Structures are given as C-alpha cells and as structure tokens.
Amino acid sequence: MSCSEYPDRPRVAVGAFVFNDEKVLLVQRGHPPAQGVWSIPGGKVELGETLQEAAEREIHEETGVIVRANMPVYTFDVVERDNKGDVRFHYVIVNVQADYISGAPRPGDDAVEARWVSPDEMVDLNISTRTKRVLSEIFSFTPTKKR
User: Fold this and answer.
1) Domain carrying residue 74
2) How many structural domains is the chain composed of?
3) Which residues does the annotation mark as catalytic?
C-alpha cells in the first residue's frame, strides 16, 4: 500500500494545462486513482514547494516536457472510498495553466503514455470527464468531429 492510500488527511496535488500547436499535453495514468484514464499531467505538492514549482517539476517528471507554470485556473477534490466506506484517496487538486518551453512528451513517473492531443483525437481516448469539461469550458478546447 502506498503512503497515499488511506491517508490521515487530504493531500495537495497540482496539474497543468499545457498547450502547443493547438494540442494539449495529456498522460495516461498508470496507477490508482484513475489508472488507465487520460488526464492532464501533475502530482503531489512536496513540502516547501509552491504550486508553480510543483507543477513544473511534476510535468517534467511525468512527461519530460519543460513548462513555466502560471496561476491556478481550476480546483477540485478527489475522494475515493473503498467498499467499506473508508477513504482510500483524498486529494485537493489545483490546476494551473502552464506555458510550453521545450521537450518532446515521453512517459515517466506515474504515466504509461504521454502525448500532445488535438481536440478531435480526444474523441477516441478515455479522458476523465472533469478534464474534458475544463478543457471545453475554460479553454474552448472541444472536438469538431462526433464519435
């Protein structure tokens, strides 16, 4: 069991919306919660890190891409309970927008795949509902083709 499972308090995590050439940087998660689901890259904030420092570090660790993180654009909780009702995971996730600096996506850390994705390519991926909603509502990043 990882130290993130069955926590004694919520954990703070950060994600980043990174765009390049009309595509967004996404990763396919390799571990729970959300194993197998595509979402924006990110991870836990370490003690002493700002949200921006954590986002820059996590994006680089997960994708190899270098970014400059900006201000938060969306915040939410993830609370997952087991079949007994005990809290298995509890994250407060702060998403920032980040500027692409350099690098080609490659999976690392928790990601089993990392790549730039166009709005139309999103139709064929198992993308988290929340990621799709934020991409659409905040960034007007939506597919033009129907499934």
Assistant:
1) 11-139
2) 1
3) 113
